[in-house]
Design goal:
By secondary structure, this protein is α/β, with parallel strands linked by helices. The chain contains 13 helices and eleven strands. The strands form two sheets. Strands 1-5-6-7-8-9-10-11 form an eight-stranded parallel β-sheet. The model has no long low-confidence stretch (mean pLDDT 91).
Length: 341
């Protein structure tokens, strides 16, 4: 049995933007010192006239060269120490809205993705990645998704809100059609692409602006029948724990009942929806609603202290509180199915 980390991160560096075209250099993000902004960790990215914290939320036990991908061998060596076979890589800088200009978004997304391809090529099959798309330009986004699939990407990154659109908006239907054709899951990560939501909750913790946006997108995707409209499409909901699944499904069941419909007890399996749990979730309770085949787990490598989640899950397996076969599915079979590994 392998251990697949369904949510690991890279921390972007100045090298991330070396892949920009000469004509795009005016859009290149810059690192600026922000010692007076405590939440920034002392440094921020300056992107299209806006500051975005750079050095905050960094795992203390991850080697700098590994989390910033300056030393791929060091990253793999650390994975070996953690007994992790494969990491699926998510971005950091794109977790917040950063521009409303399509040309800026396109330049940054393409440079980031080409950086990830270089990492994937050096990763010996152990570092897979999700592509970040320029969703302000759907035609460009579809072309980038196809290119990414041909270059090792195993999923499509998306935020709980993209601009002022929820994920059930018909604007995204061409993306869902292409993702279905490419067999790439839509990976909804704890994040928001809405300036309105991000700025409204600027002084609060990340729960309202990042976590609830993802839970809301889960609800709207099911309520609006997106899985039925796109019967080959897979969704992953990442880094928001799984404790909310019973609440969301209970609410959906009541709303379906008012419409004279019934919500299937196996709706996650039938809808090809996967959710990343945390080991402090009440897993026996969650599994009653999710079933055993649609839960994955990630370490949040690069942001959190990396060993805790996966090691805690292995300990849970030994305790017998959750069946060993279910833990094996969470660590291996389910992420393999989600990402098509």
């Amino acid at each position: 049995m392998a251990t697949i980390d369904a949510d690991a991160h890279v921390l972007e560096t100045e090298r991330t933007w070396d892949y920009m075209l000469e004509s795009e250099r005016a859009f290149r993000p810059k690192i600026v010192a922000t010692p007076d902004v405590e939440e920034s960790g002392g440094e921020s990215w300056l992107i299209d006239g806006r500051l975005r914290e750079k050095a905050r939320n960094v795992g203390a036990d991850t080697p700098k060269a590994a989390r910033e991908m300056e030393d791929i061998e060091a990253r793999i060596k650390h994975m070996n120490e953690l007994e992790v076979d494969i990491q699926v890589l998510y971005p950091t800088v794109f977790l917040r809205p950063f521009t409303s200009r399509p040309e800026v978004e396109l330049a940054l997304c393409k440079s980031y993705n080409r950086w990830l391809v270089d990492i994937w090529r050096q990763g010996k099959g152990r570092l897979r990645w999700v592509v970040v798309l320029p969703l302000l330009s759907m035609e460009e986004a579809l072309a980038e998704a196809k290119w990414a699939k041909e270059n090792g990407a195993c999923g499509i990154f998306i935020r709980g809100l993209e601009g002022e659109r929820c994920l059930s908006d018909p604007y995204f239907y061409p993306l869902y059609e292409e993702a279905s054709r490419l067999d790439m899951p839509i990976c909804v990560h704890s994040a928001t692409g809405s300036f309105a939501v991000h700025d409204f909750f600027a002084r609060e913790c990340g729960f309202n602006k990042f976590k609830l946006a993802v839970v809301g997108s889960f609800h709207s995707v099911l309520f609006e029948g997106i899985p039925q409209r796109f019967p080959k499409l897979k969704f992953g909901f990442i880094e928001v724990s799984a404790q909310w699944i019973p609440y969301a499904l209970h609410d959906l069941a009541r709303r379906f009942q008012r419409k004279g419909k019934a919500l299937s007890k196996e709706v996650l399996r039938e809808s090809r929806i996967y959710v990343a749990c945390q080991t402090d979730d009440d897993l026996p309770y969650v599994l009653r609603y999710s079933g055993p085949d649609n839960i994955v787990i990630g370490s949040d490598y690069g942001h959190a202290d990396t060993a805790s989640e996966l090691e805690a899950l292995r300990t849970l397996k030994q305790s017998g509180e959750v069946g060993a076969s279910v833990i094996d599915k969470i660590l291996d079979d389910n992420p393999r199915a989600l990402y098509g590994l």
